[in-house]
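Researcher: I'm preparing a figure for a lab meeting and need a structural model of a single chain. I don't have an experimental structure, so a prediction will have to do for now. The sequence is pasted below. Please return the structure as tokens so I can convert it later.
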Amino acid sequence: MLKRSAFTMIELIFVIVIMGIIGKFGVEFLLEAYKSFIFSKVNHELQATSGAAVELIAAKLQHRIKDSVIARTGVPPAAPVSIGSVSGNNYTVLEWVGTDYEGFRGNANTSPSLPNWSGILDLNNTNATNAILISPETNTTAINSMILNLSDTNSSINNAALFFIGANSNAVTDYGWDGSLVLINAQQGAMHPITSVTGIGNENRFAPAVGTANFTGIDVYEYYKLAWTAYAIVYEAGADNLGTLRLYWDYQPWNDRDGDTNADQFNTPGIQVKSAIIMENVSTFQFTSIGDIIKIQVCTKSTIINGQNDGDGYSLCKEKTIF
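Model: Understood. Here is the structure written out token by token.
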């Protein structure tokens, strides 16, 4: 007859001990692997969102009028200071005037594709006067159409202005940031409000905007940039020392559309300023400048790990230098 042997008591004890060891360390190993995966996922998400935020801000700043950049503190914002005077990290608003780079690229659907504005004034043209500026190869009708499209009909060429390249300017007073339009309405600021000249064949002509002086006694330079909106990056504080970064556009600090004789700002009631959230859960938004170079930093933090608040969380920062 065949005999069937069984485990001895000692063998059973060894098996139980080995299974206990495997169970204890195996579970801990799986737990650590799971935590590593979660933190890797959070890191990837924060890297992606903060990287996208920094790149978006940099893309807008790349087309700035370099002399126009200012900073403010608080919401509603306090008095502006030039970006070159910024020290410390208590500034929560970064503002600048952007050039109409979309219009300068022209219309890709036309052949040949020409810019809507050339950036050049013909100062020796016989049709140029103290109230008419001639810009060869410029099409004010196309400019107006593009601004209307980009602003959803909120702005037009009548809200645009020229910036003469080479002219001296004060960042605080010459762009309308301080709320005063005295210099600008006299065409003595950095921004020169314009309108188009009506009539076939006049598409290459700019005239002073209604309510502003003509160009008599003003230094008019041959090269210019056209602008129709300013931009603001605003850090809005929230709970847990985490805030929101928001982009504002479609407003003109050199303009007055609400009739109060003060310049339009991104927080002016009644002005149809557009805004969009760039990023949430922002712990730090900092910027500084050296000459015309601007450096920005965005830091973000996630305290929610696997659906629960772990207290410490995970944080990282992204930086970008814009020339």
